[in-house]
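Why do we bother with holo predictions? Because pocket geometry can differ from the apo form. Keep that in mind while you read this record for 6-O-phosphono-alpha-D-glucopyranose.
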Amino acid sequence: MSETSSSGRPIIIAANRLPVMRADGGQWTPSPGGLVRALYPMLRESGGTWVGWTGEPDDDPEPFTVEGVDLRPIPISADEMTLYYEGFSNDALWPLYHDALRESTFDNDQWQAYRSVNERFAAELAEVAPDESVVWVHDYQLQLVPGLLRERRPDLTIGFFLHIPFPPVDLFTRLPWRDQIATGLLGCDLVGFQRPKDAANFVATVDQLLDVAIDGNTIAHGGRTTSVGEYPISIDVAEVEEIATGRATRQRTSQIRARLGDPEVIMLGVDRLDYTKGIGLRLRAFARLLEDGRLDPTRHVMVQVATPTREAVEHYQDERASIERLVGEINGRFSRIGLPVVHYLYQSLPYDELVALYRAGDVMLVTPFRDGMNLVAKEYAAAHIDGDGVLVLSEFAGAADELTDAVLVNPHDERALQDAIVEAVEMHRHERRGRMSGLRDQIRKSDVQGWADRFLAALDVASTTRKES
Ligand code: G6P
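The structure, written out:
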């Protein structure tokens, strides 16, 4: 990928977060989450512009450059952080877009703050985007930006990618501001989703709510057209493989295994601590298997990394409390002195430490109730350059469409989840290697570079179609 689109025009990325945030000591460190992990390496390769928030309230630094990427911070006040970020984005939209796993809060003040932060993004983009350039907007926090930007800058090519699921019509239409959000997205030339189902949900939604004419994957509205498509996101496979191959990683992997007491099987979970991820579910399955004697605490251990996220939102506080109580109960019951059965880290780990952990993990448990894609599943396969290791993957993660060599499971079915874990633990080496080779072939076929290239090529076609129609 270069910093230009396939037609040679400059690209500006807009996402809620900049790819870096301030660490405790004030220095810049990578921001959390799959979105940044996927997009940043792509932009870092060649330079480019990224408009977003530093993650700190009232933080308004001058534009700066990190690793060749031109970063343009958008200030967000403490009030807006509560209303726009914690409130509308993560307490209204996030649960609604994830199968309404928790109740959404719908609050007019939050909506107003969402609008005004989206306006600020649009104003900054309108100012920094060169004539006829390409603006690529990301994720649910910025769904009004395409419409607002289109009003200011009809010359631009505007694309949007939703990293999380787009809900079915019956859920989306609960949203009091459903028309405004749907209209906002139609400011784009191309709206991209993770799975065909998400794209179909969006098309059905605008069909029901707005005055549009639909022809295949093109939506005609008010004299313009917007295309829709699915572009499953991926990871920088080469980067993960390079870290996994390094001597330091190999040494760290052996050290981790030794520190865990050299168990026969290490089971691993790596997630943001989010109620969509099904962390409690897998802990309960593990506990039940120990209780029933199907797993043995002297031979099987679990490592769960839970990255802190959205800590001011009550649903997240409840989820953390419930997970930590469970970890305590399981360890209290099944651990031995110096050898816990569950190793729980509520921390954000450096990427190379994560890759070392992936390599140490014999069985990776990715069991979300609902997930747009889940890049951890792909990272695990990329890290297993030894060709071994088993991935247990929820059918409700977007990644399940592609990673069909995983042990696929319905996480709502307790017994099925327990059986899937035992199947993974007991799987014969020959089958393990066969499945891992299938997983690795799949992710190599479609890494993040290919994802971006495909989206940007389709965006060029869509903008040409719009201009000619
Ligand atoms: C998910 C979302 C991203 C978000 C990330 C981290 O991956 O799709 O938009 O940036 O989580 O969440 P946070 O709220 O910390 O930005």
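The chain has two domains: 3-234+448-468, 237-444.
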